[in-house]
Amino acid sequence: MAEQVLYRKWRPQRFADLVGQDTVVQTLRQAVSQDRVAHAYLFCGPRGTGKTTAARILAKALNCESLGPNATAPNDGDPDNTCPFCIDVREGRALDLVEMDAASHRGIDDVRSLQERVFGAGPAQGRAKVYIIDEAHMLTDFAFNALLKTLEEPAPWAYFVLCTTEPHKLLATIVSRCQRFDFRRIAPKDMQARLQTICEGEGFTFEEQALSTIARATGGSLRDALNILEQTALSYGNAVTLAGVQDLLGLSEDPRALELVRTVLLGSLGESLGVLNDVSSSGLEPGPFHREVVERMRAVLLHKSGVGVTDDSMEIQDAVKTIADATDWNVLLRAMRLVGKVNLRSGEGPSWLPLELALIECASAPEEVAPPVAAAPAPPPARAPAPLPRPAPQARPNNGPSPSRRPPWEDAPQPARNLQPSQTDSMDEPSQTQPAPPPQVNIPIPEGATALDDAQWTTLMQPLKRARGKKFVLGSLLLDCRARYTKEDKLVLVFKNVANRDRLQEELEHPASRLTFESAVSEALGGSYNLKLEAVDSDVASGNTYGHLVRAAVALGAKVIPDKEGLQ
């Protein structure tokens, strides 16, 4: 039999063994011990944080002989891992634990097959059957809809656990039928302690700095950390060293990174470029070295803030503290902004040039980031002079067409007026260079409807400005909305452009986009509404209700006579 990899061999078997998920563990143990387990759970969070493992432990706890109704001793909600069912789960042969990978079984037929198993037969061994749906966000919309009723009213012996890394892709109706638990990224100190326990159990020799580097490099995923640990141990004869981890991950941990930070923050451009040239000449990749420089600058920032970094050696901590004490706040912040946003990809491959340019910019014009001087209070604005009286308009004869209705070929081009602030026109009329948004009143509001005020519309638009749907940004489509009102349980949005109406309708057919939009509506209006999208003719929106033939006649000099009673 092949040797198991570390993340499978050291998979937690009890709630107490889960790392960095104290809130989730406490709640699940209390639910088991008090016999108040929900019929459906949603476990969401980053990869490698224990979602599927927690679901398996829950399955063991629901069927463990020491936790059943016949148990005589008090329990803490943890399975004993000694009863037959716990052993079967650990060895992967439990009949009452069903795991479905939604990434490969994502269709409606797969869900229907699962439903038949749920209602077809009860537990074979224990008291409950547990169904774990991994990567649940991969199910299709049809499959989700087929699952709804089962989640809402399952068989009395059935329990569901949905695990996903992308909960926003699930239908809101699915989420509302589950108790949600958010698994957090594992803190580096907790992960390092777990790695040390595993190294001691496997007989690996290790350096604490190496384990700390692994914990910081994996972004809170214990499974990734165990894979790196195992690779390093295999490569270096069961020895986990800092040099081995750095070589495997492509990290530099080069003392020249801290030296570069020192010269940059102290304003020595020549020394900075010399250090960088030495690094580039040694054949190192720019990416890992750049990441190390950013980490060292962050360490300086934390030390200057009084926080400090405790996962470095004492020698490095002392050096960082010395640099922090000698560095000005503004210089540090400017350097972090310039160096942090460097993109080392240039053309066909990585290049050192962007980092060199950033160093040069750091050394130039440090006065630009000086803190702003508190300005004296501004004097009260002077009262604007009263506008000059405008001459009364001369009477215009009624026997001829108005200038606005002259034929197009009679309109002579007029020179543009160079308006100055002193002219009376700019004081009485709004500037044409900054047109106001189209007035909402151009679109008639039905009787009994309530128009959205500006505050409500601003609150609705705020979360949608950068909310990208399947193809478009939702807030961009709403810019064409010319009227918005509520009537009974409907929210009606009227668009001037039919295409924008159709684009938004298409976006709202996407579950994630619709959930985002409904959340914004609920936040702005304080409730849920049925959405209705409408579009009006451009002439109606502009106030011109005449047809194109009438408009053509008017352009040729005709006059429109209003309808009167009795006139056909």
SSE blueprint and pairings:
Elements (H helix, E strand, L loop, with lengths): L5 H4 L12 H12 L6 E5 L6 H13 L20 H8 L5 E5 L6 H13 L8 E6 L6 H12 L5 E7 L7 H4 L3 E4 L5 H15 L2 E2 L1 H10 L4 H14 L3 E2 L1 H8 L5 H11 L3 H13 L4 H19 L9 H12 L3 H12 L4 E2 L2 E2 L2 H11 L60 H5 L21 E2 L2 H8 L12 H5 L2 E7 L2 E6 L2 H11 L2 H15 L4 E6 L2 H5 L5 H8 L13
Parallel strand pairs: 1-4, 1-5, 2-3, 3-4, 6-7, 12-13
Antiparallel strand pairs: 8-9, 10-11, 11-12
Helix pairs in contact: 5-6, 8-9, 9-10, 9-11, 10-11, 12-13, 12-14, 13-17, 14-15, 14-16, 16-17, 19-22
| Architecture (CATH level 2) name of the largest domain | 3-Layer(aba) Sandwich
Largest sheet: 5 strands, parallel
Low-confidence residue ranges: 367-376, 397-405, 415-441, 538-543, 564-568
Q: Strands of the biggest beta sheet: in what spatial order?
A: 2-3-4-1-5
Strand-residue fraction? 5-15%
Number of spatially distinct domains: 4
Quote the average pLDDT: 79
The count of DSSP E runs of length 2 or more, i.e. the number of strands, is 13
**Gyration radius over CA:** 35 Å
- The percent range for helix content is 40-55%
CATH superfamily name of the largest domain? P-loop containing nucleotide triphosphate hydrolases
What descriptive keywords fit this protein?
five-stranded parallel beta sheet; 10% strand; 24 helices; 568 residues; alpha/beta; Rossmann fold; Helicase, Ruva Protein, domain 3; Zinc Finger, Delta Prime, domain 3; flat; 4 domains; four-stranded mixed beta sheet
